[in-house]
Design goal:
The complex is a heterodimer of chains A (232) and B (103). By secondary structure, chain A is mainly α. Helix content of chain A is 74%, strand content 0%. In chain A, helix 3 runs antiparallel to helix 9 (121-151) and helix 8 (109-116) packs antiparallel against helix 9. In chain A, 57% of the residues are buried. Helices cover 78% and strands 4% of the residues of chain B. Classes of the chains: A mainly alpha (232), B mainly alpha (103). Chain B: It comes from Raineyella fluvialis.
């Protein structure tokens, strides 16, 4: 496995994905302290939760005035896809013993994407572990940097940190809008959120959107093919 | 419950979801309905988070500098800018808009 790690395309891909993803830990760290969480809470989210979208959902709900329970629920719902990633990586890697528990923690969008982009089993393993461990290390390091910078900035609005949050969520959504159905889901759930906002406490509109999404997945006009195309 | 308690609970749930993929038999989670739910839920929730972070102010909807940030971020994504640049441009757009006296 370690014979020629740097000549392995999977390792190189894993390292570049780690660098790109790890760096935006800066924005998570800064936004998290701007939302009112402490440095320690911010770092705990990156070490223990370690799934970017869910982390942003947690702090985004808190920043919007939502309760801790709503934030935790939104984060958990957004993490459901990791269960499916776990199944596919389990099928490809078959980790045994303690490795299975470590593999679970580093199972995220990026490690699954790099791992499953390789057809050779050895490359799949190297790609998954390089991206998983690489992103984990850099994401946590840059979360700390962002939290330290962010807490010394003063008024987060003057620096446009709320604009950064908007951009971050759009950036997470964007690559998933490749099918027409995905675009429709985004519009319908976005509208449901906006309509619900004046009528329910902060944070709850996100859960209204989650209910709409579940209903859509059960009865929406989706083709099975459309659902499959979205998996990466 | 305190924020700390919710953070830890959410972290346990996040790990349990990841681990379930390695423990649950393939046939349960690889059903098309499950795959589809995952896709729809992820897109729906991210869209909801875009909307609340752009327009919500407590229980009201407002148009402010965050709308400019959204537009600039969309333009940056359209031309395939990398994620970090998109975030920085979003922040700059909001900051400059406020500097100019709106939002």
């Amino acid at each position: 496995m370690l014979a020629s790690p740097l000549t392995s395309p999977a390792v190189r891909l894993g390292l570049s994905v780690s660098a790109a993803t790890g760096l935006y830990g800066i924005s998570f760290g800064a936004l998290s302290v701007a939302s009112g969480l402490s440095l320690l809470q911010t770092c705990a989210l990156s070490v223990l939760m370690f799934t970017g979208g869910s982390q942003f959902a947690f702090i985004g709900t808190i920043a919007g005035g939502g309760a801790g329970g709503t934030a935790a629920l939104a984060a958990t719902l957004l993490g459901v896809r990791n269960a499916v990633y776990g199944v596919s990586m389990n099928a490809l890697l078959r980790p045994r013993g303690w490795r299975r528990y470590v593999a679970a923690q580093v199972t995220i969008d990026e490690s699954t994407a790099v791992g499953s982009s390789r057809s050779d089993p050895g490359e799949t393993r190297r790609g998954f572990w390089t991206a998983g461990v690489g992103v984990f290390v850099l994401w946590n390091a840059f979360t700390l940097v962002g939290a330290l910078i962010g807490s010394s900035l003063g008024d987060p609005r003057a620096w446009g940190l709320d604009g950064a949050a908007v951009a971050a969520f759009l950036g997470l959504l964007w690559p998933r809008l490749r099918t027409r159905e995905a675009g429709s889901i985004a519009v319908v759930c976005g509208l449901a959120t906006a309509v619900a906002t004046p009528f329910v406490p902060a944070g709850i509109p996100i859960l209204v959107a989650a209910v709409v999404a579940v209903l859509w997945s059960l009865w929406g006009p989706g083709r099975p093919r459309g659902a499959k195309e979205e998996r990466r | 419950m305190t924020v700390w308690a919710w953070i830890l609970l959410a972290c346990v749930a996040a790990y349990a979801l990841k681990l379930s993929g390695y423990l649950v038999p393939d046939r349960v989670l690889q059903q098309p309905a499950m795959t589809r739910l995952t896709m729809v839920l992820t897109v729906g929730l991210l869209a909801a988070l875009v909307v609340t972070n752009t327009f919500a102010h407590g229980q009201g909807l407002v148009l402010d500098a965050r709308l400019v940030a959204l537009g600039v971020a969309a333009l940056a994504l359209w031309v395939r800018a990398p994620f970090l640049l998109v975030v920085v441009l979003g922040a700059l757009a909001a900051a400059i808009t406020r500097l100019l006296g709106w939002g």
